[in-house]
Amino acid sequence: MSSKKNEGILAPTIIVALIVLFDIATVIAAVLVLTAVLPGFSVLIILIVTAAILVTSVLAIYVLRARIKEIRSGQEDDLSKY
Asked: What is the spatial distance between Cα 75 and Cα 16, in angstroms, rounded to a whole number?
C-alpha cells in the first residue's frame, strides 16, 4: 500500500478512535452520574441511554470501514462525483 493511501486511512481511523473513546467515557460518566445522583433511577433508562450513545460508536466504525474500502479502491475524492 502506498504512503498516500496510508495517510488517507490514518486520519479517519484516528477520528473514529477518538469518537469511540469519547462515547465510552460518556457512557461511563452517564452511568456513574445517574446511579450516584439518582440511586433509585431505573435500570431500563440507564440501558437506553447507554445503548443510544453506543450506537454512534457502531455507526462510526461502519462508516470507517466503508471509507477505508473506498480509499483502497481508489475513490479518495468522493466530491469529484458531484
From this structure: 19
